Amino acid sequence: MSTQFDPVTFAVVKNAMDSIVDEVAYTVIRTARSEIVKDVMDYSAAICDRHGRMVAQAKTIALHLGAIPEAMEAVRARYGDALRPGDAVIVNDPYQGGMHLPDIFMFVPFFYRGELEGWCVVICHHTDVGGRVPGSNASDSTEIYQEGLRIPVLKLYEAGQVNDTLERIIAQNVRVPDRVLGDLKAQYAATQVGVRELTALFDRYGRADTRAYLNELLDYAERLTREEIRGWPKGTFHFTDYIDDDGLSPEPIPIRVALTVHDDHVSADYTGSSPQVRAAINSTLSYTRSCTYLSVRCALKGDVPNNAGVFRCIEVRVPEGSVLNPLPPSAVAARALTGYRVFDAMLGALAQIVPDRIPAAGEGGNTVVCLSGKGDNGKPYIIVDMICGAWGGRPASDGIEAITNASQNLSNTPVETLEAQHPVRVEAYELVEDSCGAGQFRGGLGIRRSYRVLAPDALLQLRADRMKFSPYGLAGGGAASPARNLLEHDGATTELPSKVGMTIARGDLVTHIQPGGGGFGDPLARDFARIREDVWNHKLSAAFVREHYQAVADPATGEVDAAATAALRARRLAKAA
Fold this sequence. Notes:
By secondary structure, the chain is α+β, with helices and mostly antiparallel strands. The protein folds into three domains: 7-220, no CATH class; 359-526, no CATH class; 530-576, no CATH class. The protein contains 14 helices and 20 strands.
């Protein structure tokens, strides 16, 4: 801490900023219209200072927030000093700092006594923004013009009044305008809460002191980050992970990172990653940077503030024309999948640097199941369900299951919400036995979720992965089981590929089975008490335990027979020799 700053006041301001941005986020949940925002929680909130630097972020989707600098730069370039109190600027164009078209950024300037002092930022994933398919999130689009309404940097509100022209254009181009416009109003309402609370903070400490403490927040985060990196081993650490394919061609898509630890900063170089692909899984540069920032932040100690000061310590190099930095008009709607693999690749590299902090691979990111059509009442419906599954095993504990991937902070939609609002019946929502990677600390179990269509023909869009490249284990831990997509039609069940776009009929049953998380550590070092508990709870079968842990467990009680286990391990050891 610099001596000119009172540490007590600094702590109060820091916690006040965290509280303000969280209150902005809570307001979104309380006022949003769509389940993808209020139930799945696919949204983010942040506060930036007068220079556009992010000084606080809410407990929302971290993968969104590292993209704010580029979007903010586009807003400032477009409007400069022309904004006034009550204005709200939106943008979703991936080639103007956005990420993909369903994610609409809203930037609201905060003025204190006539001068710009900051920005309230809310990003929401909208149920639909037009385009060739409902949900605007198809992985098989081949150019951005197919994906929906591109909104450049424009004012949606001016002096507190909605821009009727822009609002009507949006309403005319989306399939569920009441939900989209309702969520945009929720974004604006939330930013006004931020403006109100920032005004109170500036009233309390004054313009000069508040500015100084916000600057110090950024510098403090940077100092802590650089101090920690100085203790990391120096050198370049490589890791490669893969996306199964893009859904249009069968070739695997490599994501390669070379992570170099310098004296007090790191650089991530993605040279060697796949060229951009035809399908819509290309990741914008802003999103690739965001995934990189988040990965490094996950390896830092918990007391480092989450703000742009951390970003100063991370260089990102991405070849132009690659799947991580595509050239327009490449399609990017399903770019989240590629971002998840960037996160996995970065963690694989970081595990070589700080092995005591990094878990094995999780389920590979959420799976998106989109079902759309018209119900028997003739009204359109769009389900955009994001299934979140499992963490990998950790250096000192098992992976967590039925929880969001560490990069997301999402929530699984309650079954009751889906069934109450849409013509669908969820017939399975359960953990999948034996789906984890074995290890001293096993991965979390994957999830099975099944949807029975209760309406006329529906359009099914499925974006999944990890069928060919299972979530990896670390430190001798095993890989998890692969993903599966199943379709039951007229009593017959068929396997589907990982990326699907097809029409299905009333009564069809769609099932997605997610991978579990990879294991951490030698499976033979697992405590027998943990094995007993897993078998008793039907998380692991006795057959799985025998195969992967070389242990003999009672299928009913889970009790491990120590003598039989020792004999089994001795036989296998002799056979291996």
